[in-house]
Every structure is written in structure tokens, then in C-alpha cells.
Amino acid sequence: MSNMEGISKVPSHVSIIMDGNGRWAARRGRERVYGHSEGVESVRACVEAACEAGVKYLSLFAFSEENWGRPQEEVGTLMELMMEAIRNEIEKLRGQGIRFRVLGNLSRLSPKLVEAIRGAELRTMPPEGKEPVLTLVVFLSYSGKWDILEASKSLARKYASDPEAVESLSIQDFDSYLVTAGIPDPDLVIRTSGEQRLSNYLLWQCAYSELLFTDTLWPDFRKEDFFRALAEYAGRDRRYGKVK
Question: Does the active-site annotation cover 67?
């Protein structure tokens, strides 16, 4: 599969659970952090492919709340990679008209990294009235259960003095309290490395997402793999629980 050959419909939002960096490195006799570093090339490839395909949102699960339990050296390297990626890539993204966002429990990040993230988000904010070519969303220190719990807490605080008003809330109202407010739910979720689970990722938002699991390890995932995933998505029939 090359470029857009055989792709009849393009998802608005593609989300990727980037998995397999450690195994990729281990097969080469290297430390896990080597796999994380090489995975950055896969991010670049998927951003290019998403732009070429006309995808409007590309989101990447980079680091979960549970990942804080990994060895301190690995966590530190991952955070350094994020800082380095922001320094090296943000002007390129800005020049391409790509908006950059980071979502998650950022209170657990270092103030220096949070400052870099906020600066990058501001730098890539499109001019008023102009749509970005692509919105690149990185989920960092994120978990689906945390997201739902925080949204529920916010609702509880808002309606504490008027509990009866809660009865009028809709699913769309709840959406607006999640960190993904304003971002459409993923049409397609890709997970690399052969694992077949969501791992506490976008649990609310993925209710009707198409799921695609590939054995390809993340550092080996390139543009042709992205286009192949889009082609498979195009062949699926999304019924949302209804009959067509």
C-alpha cells in the first residue's frame, strides 16, 4: 500500500497507542530507552501521513498515569525525549500549520516541561478564523479512569447546590468536562505491538471507535503502515448500534 491508493473514506480522528518500544530495543540487545528514541521517527512518519491523507486530528498515547511506576531512569528519559521533541519539532509543526496539544494530568510533570508544553501550544495556535491543517494531540500522564473521575468531580462541585439540575445533563454535557472537550472522539484507534487492549486509554471517548491491532512494533511503524490502517478502516461499516 502506498500513499492513498485504495482509501475511499478518511477518518477525521486517528488515535494511536504507541506500544512495543521496549521489545524492539530488546531484540537488538539495547536498553528500552533506545526504543523510545527510535519511536520518535515513527511519530514524524505518522504526522506526515496524516497530513497527506487529510486526517484532521492525530492523537498519540505517549505516557500513562500507570507508567509513573516504571524505573525512574526510563521515566526520566521519556520526559527528556518530550522536551527534546518540543525543541526540535515545534517550529516545523508551526510552519506546516499543525496545532500541538498535550492532555493529561500535567500536575505530575516538572514545571520546566509544563512551561515548554504551554509555550509550544501557544506557538502553534492558528490565527483566528484559520483551521489547522492537523491537530496533533499527545496524551501524557493520562488515564481514562482519571479523566472520567476528574470530570465527575467537576460536575459534582458545579451542581452541589442544585443536585436536581443533574437530571437534565446529556452525554454531550459530560463530554465538555473531559480533557478532550472540543476534540471529536477517535474514529480509528490503532495499537501497535500485537497487544489487544485499550490499557485505560480514552475509555469514554472510544465507545464507538474502530479498533485496529497490528503486530508491528512502534519503532517499525511507518507511513505505509498508517495508510494500510486507513484502508482497512475505509472497508469497515460503522453502525453505532443501529441496522443499516
Answer: yes
Strand order in the sheet with 188-191: 98-103, 134-142, 57-64, 13-17, 188-191, 210-213
User: Of residues 21, 67, 147, 215, which has the active-site annotation?
Assistant: 67
For the question of residue 3 being annotated catalytic, the response is no
Q: Evaluate if residue 1 carries a pLDDT over 50.
A: no
**Who contacts 195 (Cβ-Cβ below 8 Å, separation ≥6)?**
19, 213
Could you tell me the maximum CA-CA distance found in the chain, to the nearest angstrom?
Answer: 60
C-alpha distances in Å from residue 1, one per residue of 5, 45, 84: 7, 15, 32
pTM above 0.85, yes or no: yes
* Domains of the chain from N-terminus onward: 13-143+188-234 (3.40.1180.10)
Single out the catalytic residue among 3, 19, 162, 173: 19
